[in-house]
Amino acid sequence: MITAHQLTKRYGDRTVVTDLSFTVRPGTVTGFLGPNGSGKSTTLRMILGLDAPTRGHATVGGRAYAAHPAPLHEVGALLEAGSLHPGRTAYHHLTALALTHGIPKSRVGHVLDLTGLTEAAHRRVKGFSLGMGQRLGIAAALLGDPATVVLDEPVNGLDPEGVLWIRTLLKSLAAEGRTVFVSSHLMSETALTAEHLIIIGRGRLLADTTVEDFVRQSGAGTVKVVTPDAPTLVRLLSAPGVHITADTPGTLDVRGTDTEHIGRTAAAHGITLFELTPNAASLEQAFMDLTRDSVEFAATLEGARA
Amino acid sequence: MTSLTVTPTRVLHAEWHKLWTIRSTWINLALVPVLTVGTGLAIGASYESGGGDSDVDVVLLTLLGMQFTQIIVGVLGVLTTAGEYSTGLIRSTMTAVPRRLPVLWTKAAVLASITFTVVLATNLLTFPLAQTLLADTDQAASLGDPGIIRALVGNAAGLALLAVTALGIGSLVRSVPGGIGVLTGALLILPEVLRMLPYNVVDDAVRYFPTKALDALTHADPTPGTATPGAALLALALWAVATLTAAALLLKRRDV
Question: Which segments cross the bilayer (chain A) (predicted)?
């Protein structure tokens, strides 16, 4: 459980985070979304006690991060890339962290295994790819078997296989009852794993909602269907609440139903489908609309003041 | 995993592990005996009685290689703290030990004890080796002579304190080149510049600058016009305490 109470962070004249309050609950994945530079990393740094808030405070598991006797057991964090010494091996990096808490050596081997780094464990981190560096950061986050996991842009630099691995990992961590808080600037990626969303723009809270509500309100969730028999399928799918548009011949955008219903309907009537894709791009669009508004709003305010 | 807590002993284990798992530590520490013994032997081999170096203290003469050691342990001190900022490792370190100060104290303790041990071993090796070449000269001396052991041990203690001072500077400056710049500028070059000034009070103060105090500490026979061994050691300790205290205050306040 993470709680932010009116967090505010100012660097000189620049206010990066303003009066931010939210709660992240255990047992689900919570996405922390915002465009680049919206204050996500600063917020995470304040939660972890790396930066002191100008006002407000954050707690993890009921108290300030630094007040926990075993911080790594309370929160495991993937920080921005390169939070390590490039001259040290992956194994020694993790061992040094483990030693601060008396975490057994066997656990170091376990997280190396879990992140697929066992073979690279004794290589110096200098030679690691971006993806391997991310995996090592995730290994460090899991080292203390933490109740809460905080990951800053975990899919950055990962190959498609790695992205898939992260999705599964996040869901399984949440299923174990842990609090999982994942920042990202990609709505479509986040919507695949998260159930809850906290969206910020320019350091302010824009939305604290579920993915389901966000999708419904955004009007996203259209399904793209490519079929040689479009007219028939349109007739079969027509129902109250279902809207179908066909901008190009043979390609339908269906709103108001899901891929499962469309697929079954087509199969039942022997209609060939070339493509059946839930349209995540419109979700991305809704997210961009939401955050762009906040940026424009802020810009207008500044203009009015000047 | 029920007994997980951060304790001072565990932080010590972690910092000890960190120091020995990067190559630069091994390289730097290996250079200390190599350069000191090498310089000592070269001096011993080329020394002539009654020459220009006759009035140089015997310990200072044989340990002339400590000029290199000053730089080496200084760099090592800066790397220990500022290196974590340059690489970004500091974020991991401070997430594991969010109370922060135990990390600073532990780093200082680990670096001081390792420096002291390596330098003392080097000195106890260098002096007798150089003396085998100086046996028939006016610089002949043995470990049992008055002040010799005190100067050899004092030199090691002084260099350990210099390393801690550098570590404090590294933590304050948070940049390896910046830290090395401040170290050489303020500690090595500044006293030489100040000495040129025609004021006695400045001369008195310069005596207690780290490098000057270290020179004084390395004398078997205290020379007039330099600090006494006790005062020199105290001065070096105060430099270390002052920089480390400033580093601690800022470490607690600043964002990582």
Answer: none
